[in-house]
Specification:
The chain is about 5% helix and about 45% strand. It is mainly beta. The chain has a single domain, classed as Neuraminidase. It is globular, with a radius of gyration of 18 Å.
Length: about 300
């Protein structure tokens, strides 16, 4: 499928009245444009937004129907859209090896601002929205970037938060990846993909303390999603989602489940899921298909993972 719609046309399509459907009627597999190469996903109600690693395009899809299209043209080759989070009217997008974070208007598709966080070798990987800032991880440097969210996007300020405490940066590999808020919303949770450790980070000081998970490791940890006191941690190349029950502060947790292809509806599959969004009792995970042959023309899709067992 190769769909490209104008922002206005897609807004009309997605905002129109939809007859309520039973949960079983939700599509289990949602096709994306061939060669799209997704990684991040974020949902606001039934509308999910995904970014392209190819050229930074933003694709919006109605999770009830599976229909969607490109609502924002990216900056082009060398400026990917990796992690994605959605606020009331804006998307916050991680720029990968471009070292940037972008702000996109979801009504018009316009790029409101592009902020360069660093000119050193970097991979700005994922993002989470807190009350006052969008916090971005950098997989190649031991630091987070906090972008203010209020007012004019172009006038936003950036705070670079150095990670310290228990954090030990390994050279030449991806370290910090997914990021979320603790259940009490006082701290940030960051997964270190290479070690499998989960850290609780103080957003004022940068002090990182390893979360006590009773021996559970999140190696290849990618996107993190917290709902209530439940953490869903996507382990990309292992094709699974680990479910962890956290305490309120996020300082400790215990694994309660591991979701794999055996938990998927018929007719769909995993091929390196990276991040997750929630809608109506389901997780939705884009398949990045890292290492697939001819990625520029390969097919890509979003997998629906029901949470009821």
């Amino acid at each position: 499928m190769a769909v490209a719609l104008t922002s206005a046309a897609l807004t009309v399509t997605l905002a129109g009245p939809v007859v309520a459907q039973p949960r079983a009627a939700l599509p289990s597999r949602i096709a994306l444009p061939d060669g799209f190469q997704p990684e991040g996903i974020a949902a606001r109600g039934p509308i999910a937004y995904l970014g392209s690693r190819t050229d930074g395009d933003i694709f919006a899809v109605d999770l009830r129907s599976g229909k969607g299209g490109v609502i924002s043209q990216g900056p082009g080759a060398g400026f990917p859209s990796v992690g994605v989070k959605v606020g009331t009217t804006r998307l916050y997008v991680s720029g990968g090896n471009a070292g940037t974070g972008r702000v996109v208007d979801i009504r018009t598709g316009a790029i409101l601002a592009s902020h360069t966080f660093t000119r050193n070798p970097s991979f700005v990987n994922d993002v989470v929205l807190t009350k006052g800032r969008a916090w971005f991880t950098d997989s190649l440097q031991p630091q987070l970037y906090g972008l203010t969210r209020t007012g004019n996007a172009g006038a936003a300020t950036v705070r670079t938060l150095k990670l310290r405490g228990d954090w030990v940066q390994a050279p030449a590999v991806n370290n910090a990846n997914g990021i979320a808020q603790s259940p009490d919303k006082r701290s940030l949770l960051v997964v270190q993909s290479n070690t499998g450790f989960l850290f609780k980070v103080n957003p004022r000081t940068g002090v990182a303390r390893r979360v006590k998970l009773g021996g559970t490791l999140l190696t290849n940890g990618d996107g993190l999603l917290v709902r209530g006191r439940t953490l869903y941690a996507v382990r990309n190349r292992l094709n699974e989602v680990v479910v962890i029950h956290l305490n309120a502060s996020g300082s400790r947790g215990r694994k309660t489940d591991t979701l794999t292809k055996a938990d998927l509806p018929g007719g769909t599959s995993f091929d390196v899921p990276t991040t997750a969004a929630f809608y109506r009792g389901n997780l939705y995970l884009p398949n990045a298909r890292f290492g697939t042959a001819e990625p520029e023309t390969a097919d890509y899709w979003v997998t629906r993972l029901p949470l009821s067992r």
